[in-house]
Amino acid sequence: MSDFSKVKRVLVIYTGGTFGMVLNDVGDDSLHDPNLRVPEEHHLLALPLVKGESNRVLYKIKEYDPLLDSSNMAGNDWMRIAKDISLMYELFDGFVVIHGTDTLAYTASALSFMLHNLAKPVVVTGSQIPIYKTCTDAKNNLVSSLLIAGCYEIPEVCVVFANKLLRGNRTVKVNCNAMEAFDSPNAPLLGTLNSVININRSQIRPAPRDKLLAVTGVLEKNLAILKITPDISINVIRSALEEPIMGVVLESYGSGNIPSNRTEIIELLRQAVDRGVIIVNCTQCLSGSVAAIYDAGAVVEGVGVLSGSDITSEAAYTKLAYVLGSNVPQNRKIELMKYNLRGEMTVTA
Ligand SMILES: NC(=O)C[C@H](N)C(=O)O
């Protein structure tokens, strides 16, 4: 290898999902350049050079055991990924997390909150079709992710999928069949990866001044997502708000409305807020923002439910897990839920 200044190292954490990588796949010369002599003891693979990119990306795969369908993943798995990134942080220039698509938006959102002072790219990706199938999207998603993690300064948790670069905590799974499985309906793309890679620099968050990465140690698990529906039973509302629940994402209609003629619902929300439950109001719509423009929305804010603005339910849920798990007073937790911490929501003064 002639120019070591251009060598970037990426750690790939393989957690499972449809992706289905087996060791033989990296014998594939679209994923490994056998002509590049890499010291064997490091178990590094070399991404073949890509036209237009001057960095040479070397990567190492850390495979979890067992590999999990992402439906079986939760807070402990987010913690494991975050801790592994932190342990290896100084040794690598970027990180790729291969993940099942079903809960990928939750994991990407959670990691964005859990990794404080993140100054390197963490790219979460997966696939709709396993890597060993002819028409797979896995190779393209992995190569794109390795390029972003190895060649670009993006100090964020992001998602790369089907040639799109998205902010992790703005991402939602929008299609369970198509290759274009993810979108960020309330935030512009961070970039596109086609014949050329275009990074939307104005949307990338600045690197933190404090370069010391820290990882959240505790996540709150007593959370619920309460989706308002016509004729919703009061028992459903009651059980979503009762002890030991500490945080609730309220998925309301349109711009934040609930049936304001159901006074018993409003009373239960008020009692929960008085008990210290943090409730965040999010819209059921795919895009747009919560705003108390109708009575049916104002009544929610009136009892102390917080506006989630344009946050996704996945980001609101994982932000609650992070904020409620942190060791700060209740009023600080409420403040944190209102702030835009990692680009997850639009906050207007
Ligand atoms: N495409 C996928 O990866 C779906 C799979 N059920 C998972 O989330 O693990």
Describe this structure in words.
This protein has 2 domains: 6-215, Rossmann fold (3-Layer(aba) Sandwich); 223-338, Rossmann fold (3-Layer(aba) Sandwich). Helices cover 26% and strands 22% of the residues. The protein contains 8 helices and 17 strands. It has helices at 75-87, 104-114, 138-151, 234-241, 263-275, 295-302, 313-325, 330-338; strands at residues 7-16, 45-46, 56-68, 94-98, 115-116, 122-125, 157-161, 164-167, 172-173, 182-183, 191-193, 197-199, 214-215, 223-227, 247-252, 278-283, 306-307. The protein has a 9-stranded mixed sheet, sandwiched between helices. The longest helix is centred in the middle third of the chain and has 14 residues, at 138-151. It is elongated and about 70 Å long. The N and C termini lie far apart (52 Å). Asparagine is lined by residues 17-18, 69-71, 100-102, 126, 128. Residues 17-18, 69-71, 100-102, 126, 128 line the site of asparagine.
